[in-house]
């Protein structure tokens, strides 16, 4: 394993260990509760931050810093199965959820207060039994179990309510073509060894992407696994426009 991937996996595991303390800041439920009261809470702020990061870094958050991603990649050790299609499912969940937030905000007369630590205990997510149960349900039922049953990062593909913020940010970036983190390919040096496909944690057809010289994919988390797996150096990181 290349040093970059060791660092990446180390960060993911660290964020996974912190997930019990931080998961309220990414909660799709707490933001609804706070919106009813006209409060901008921690998850509201974090979702805005994710969208902004998507404008420049695409879905690098998913590949490098997401605690849910760390959980799923840890499961690779027990079951490393490629995922099937179904990326549209998260949009079926995300659109009505965001619509509900907008409607509730309007009914509340807009946001009138900021409370980043809303519903936390001294800034920590788990402060009582109900919070612990909520965390375990999210971790086991929504993140770990789908990854084990359906394959690599199933939560990212099928359920994640955070991914659309990043994807939309990336699509906005692609419209304006300002400089951002992305992958580029040199199809002429590809040896068709299939290692990029084999190692991609999102089960993307990376080799086909290289050969067609179209590295942009809404499900790419810019983890760089394909970059480090390719012996021919056909894939590279870059920070550029276009």
Notes on the structure:
The chain has two domains: 169 residues, no CATH class; 64 residues, Alpha-Beta Plaits. The model has no long low-confidence stretch (mean pLDDT 96). The strands form two sheets. The protein has a two-stranded parallel sheet with strand order 1-2. Strands 3-4 form a two-stranded antiparallel ribbon. The chain contains twelve helices and four strands, in the order ααβααααβαααβαααβ. The chain is mainly alpha-helical.
Which descriptors apply to this entry?
242 residues; mainly alpha; Alpha-Beta Plaits; two-stranded parallel sheet; two-stranded antiparallel sheet; 12 helices; 4 strands
Quick synopsis:
With 242 residues, the chain is mainly alpha-helical.
């Amino acid at each position: 394993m290349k040093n970059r991937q060791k660092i990446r996996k180390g960060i993911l595991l660290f964020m996974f260990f912190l997930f019990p303390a931080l998961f309220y800041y990414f909660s799709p439920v707490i933001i609804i509760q706070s919106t009813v009261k006209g409060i901008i809470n921690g998850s509201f702020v974090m979702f805005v931050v994710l969208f902004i990061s998507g404008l420049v870094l695409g879905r690098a958050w998913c590949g490098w810093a997401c605690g849910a991603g760390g959980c799923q990649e840890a499961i690779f050790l027990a079951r490393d199965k490629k995922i099937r299609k179904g990326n549209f499912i998260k949009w079926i969940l995300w659109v009505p959820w965001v619509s509900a937030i907008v409607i509730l905000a309007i009914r509340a007369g807009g946001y009138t207060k900021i409370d980043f630590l809303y519903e936390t205990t001294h800034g920590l997510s788990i402060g009582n039994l109900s919070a612990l149960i909520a965390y375990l349900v999210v971790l086991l039922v929504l993140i770990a179990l789908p990854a084990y049953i359906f394959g690599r990062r199933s939560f990212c593909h099928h359920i994640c309510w955070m991914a659309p913020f990043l994807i939309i940010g990336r699509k906005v970036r692609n419209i304006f073509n300002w400089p951002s983190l992305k992958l580029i390919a040199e199809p002429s040096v590809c040896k068709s060894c299939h290692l990029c496909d084999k190692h991609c944690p999102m089960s993307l057809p990376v080799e086909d992407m290289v050969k067609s010289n179209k590295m942009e994919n809404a499900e790419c988390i810019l983890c760089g696994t394909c970059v480090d797996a390719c012996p021919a150096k056909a894939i590279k990181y870059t920070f550029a426009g276009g």
